[in-house]
Design goal:
globular; alpha/beta; 11% strand; seven-stranded mixed β-sheet; 18 strands; 697 residues; four-stranded mixed β-sheet
């Protein structure tokens, strides 16, 4: 970091993830606490003006975010109560603490919608464990301050001291309460001392007999541990839940033999490794984690055979992917729009052979502020292609053997819409250059568009992964995005091969936390997409069976309904299953109406994480349901929906909605389609994974 930007006790820092900047500004009130400094740009050397947060801004961020949000909130989860298990970033309804006493809580739990109210982690302790702990702390210090100091140091050094040490940035990828478990254990000692404090009060002050005093103290204090056990058991109980194993096997069974599967985050990688390493399932598939593919040691591993999977056919020598080499490979901004497309092989060879035309010297600066010349690779174009051997791709199953040559591209052409490639991106490009269609290449549906290098137009959906094929996507998914899909193959996998982790058994209690629900959301999305494509092909009976299967294996009892399921309503209507569609439509409308009114009531009440996006997504879903009722002739339902929309202040949808033809919006009103996009983006987010980032040094 530039010395001019440093300060005493720095709390706000940023490397490459600029998404954090606005959060720092909000939590630290930087707008009112900054000074302007001028420092040289690291690459050009030109003087630039920057806003430097003051010491007060750093302290504000420290106390508001790091202490209050990232420690005290977790402390209160354990000894006051918890709202739900939804990860929160500062708003009122996600992951806050609550006591169950409305006057003290930020949101009255009785007014929350059903989805939040019935969350398994909705725990109310009514401050009882906290009060007992504070009483025990006072008693302990009063009676034996030396031993109390030992517990106090354990409490502080495994709590607030860790807060200072970690210096956490905002928008953490997951809740971090586990980091402070030692601190919470220490406070639990004082809860025990709290019982003894009451016993001491009864014997010393009230002069009760020992047995009676002990019994009375026990009875009075029993509510604390009872509430903690009774309220907290269901969101700590993992019995009957096998989603991690089964969904991992679904990913692997999506892939063809000897495939290479790209994943991105922890939650869509580690379960697959477990299935292979422990269960011995589909060890012929090589799972490559894109976050780890930014590191040299992981690329070394990929270059070796593992179980039944041959080495990944990378061609870059180790000197080109060692740490510090090719961490970023740039596209020349001046040449890329003028240079014609080049093959992936040509571009990778420029790096392998250190082609002078692909190298540039820029100004570098080390951690001590010393300037040095830094040589980087700069590719002349971002327009790339890989040639296609049509005979080979038909013989090895990349495309069906009876596919006419006219439908197979001579070469796969695409443009990478990035200014630079990370090392993981470069390794993907290397694989595409070296593979020559020998092994199937898949990208997990949860990997995220940043990982796809803009190859989506050449993807074919085969389950929970996209396969790269030399055929242009010729269909439209539920978001009107181009999608290729072998519907018969995917239908067979979903109906006959996929497993569901026990969710299909409604008789059993199964706790589904936020990460598990993200996976079920993706499963639902793929099944809704398949149903839409089957309807497009006129296979309405199969489309209905897929939607029935979706509700059967992911019932509302275990997986709450979500706004994006409006597309399931449309799928049922198109398949001719009017009763199924109407039943689901009414359930969704009631749920979205309740949640819309709730979020609308919170507008303007929280500085972090407003509710406009939530309200807009729900409003879009409500209006879509009303339009579907209009489109499919459900007059009574349509009239009821219009009346309720008006009562919510949303207004009725257009009197004559245009559902005719395929206009790229699925026949939907363009303004409504624009609003629904935000809802769809929320549904398509990754399954608990982090975005691909360069590793911290």
């Amino acid at each position: 970091f530039a010395p001019e930007m440093c300060t005493i006790f720095p709390r706000m820092w940023e490397m490459n993830q600029k998404v954090h900047v606005k959060e720092y500004e909000s939590w630290g009130n930087v707008a009112h606490n900054h000074v302007t400094v001028r420092i040289p740009d690291r690459q050009t050397g030109e003087m630039q003006s920057y806003e430097k947060p003051t010491m007060l801004a750093n302290l504000t961020y420290f106390f508001r975010y790091q202490v209050n949000w990232m420690y005290m909130r977790y402390f209160f989860w354990n000894f006051v109560g918890r709202q739900n298990d939804i990860q929160g970033h500062g708003n009122l309804t996600d992951g806050n603490y609550q006591s169950g006493i409305a006057a003290f809580d930020k949101v009255d739990s009785k007014k929350e919608p059903k989805r939040l109210r019935e969350n398994a982690a909705n725990n109310k302790f009514y401050y009882i464990p906290l009060i007992l702990g504070l009483l025990g702390m006072y008693f302990h210090f009063a009676k034996d301050w030396k031993s109390a100091l030992v517990i106090g140091l354990l409490f502080l050094f495994t709590g607030l001291a860790i807060v200072v040490y970690l210096n956490q940035y905002p928008l953490q990828p997951r809740e971090r309460d586990y980091a402070y478990a030692g601190s919470f254990y220490a406070f639990a000692f004082w809860i025990g001392f709290g019982v003894y404090a009451l016993y001491d009060l009864f014997t010393e002050r009230l002069k009760l007999q020992g047995t009676m005093a002990a019994g009375l103290a026990t009875v009075m204090c029993f509510s604390g541990p009872y509430l903690m056990g009774q309220q907290g058991w269901d969101d700590h109980n993992r019995s009957n839940r096998y989603t991690c194993r089964d969904f991992a096997e679904n990913y692997l069974s999506t892939c063809d033999k000897n495939a290479i599967l790209f994943t991105n985050g922890d939650n869509d990688t580690f379960p697959l490794w477990y299935a292979q390493e422990v269960e011995g399932y589909r060890t012929d598939v090589r799972v490559l984690n894109l976050s780890l593919l930014n590191t040299d040691w992981y690329i070394d591993q990929a270059n070796r055979k593992a179980y039944d999977s041959d080495r990944v056919p990378f061609s870059l020598p180790s000197t080109r992917y060692r740490q510090g080499s090719c961490d970023q490979v740039f596209f020349d901004p001046d040449k890329k729009n003028k240079t014609k497309e080049m093959s992936a092989r040509e571009l990778v060879d420029m790096i392998i052979h250190a082609n002078p035309d692909a190298m540039s010297v820029r100004r570098g600066e080390d951690d001590n502020g010393d300037v040095y010349p830094d040589t980087v690779f700069v590719l002349p174009t971002n327009k790339i292609y890989i040639p296609v051997d049509k005979k080979l791709v038909k013989s090895n199953g990349t495309v069906p053997a009876d596919t006419p040559d006219s439908l197979i591209a001579d070469r796969v052409e695409w443009t990478i819409n990035k200014s630079y490639l990370l090392k993981a991106d470069l390794m993907i490009l290397d694989l595409l250059a070296s593979n020559n269609w020998q092994r199937p290449i898949y990208f997990a549906v949860t990997a995220g568009s940043d990982s796809y290098l803009n190859l989506e137009g050449w993807f074919r959906l085969e389950g929970l992964a996209y396969r790269l094929v030399p055929m242009k996507a010729d269909k439209r998914g539920i978001f009107s995005e181009p999608v290729g899909c072998n519907t018969d193959m995917m239908y067979d996998k979903i109906m006959n091969k996929f497993k569901w982790g026990g969710l299909e058994d409604k008789s059993k209690k199964i706790y589904m936390d936020e990460n598990n629900l993200r996976f079920t959301t993706n499963q639902r999305l793929q099944m809704m997409t398949l149903a839409k494509l089957l309807n497009d092909e006129g296979k309405h009976d199969k489309a209905k069976k897929v939607l029935d299967r979706c509700l059967e294996v992911m019932p509302e009892e275990h997986v709450p309904y979500e706004p994006a399921m409006v597309y399931m309503v449309d799928g049922y209507y198109r398949a001719g299953a009017m009763d199924n569609a109407n039943k689901l439509s009414k359930t969704l409308f009631d749920q979205c109406e309740e949640e819309y009114n709730f979020y609308n009531s919170l507008a303007g009440k929280t500085p972090q994480g407003g509710y406009d996006d939530d309200a807009n997504r729900l409003a879009s879903a409500l209006q879509m349901l009303s339009q579907f009722a209009d489109k499919y002739g459900q007059k009574d339902m349509s009239a009821d929906y219009r009346k309720r929309l008006t009562a919510m202040g949303l207004g009725a949808p257009t009197d004559q909605p245009d559902f005719g033809g395929d206009d790229g919006n699925g026949g939907m009103d363009p303004k409504l389609k624009a609003r629904i996009d935000s809802m769809m983006n929320a549904m398509k987010q990754d399954s608990g994974k982090k975005k691909q980032q360069p590793p911290h040094k």
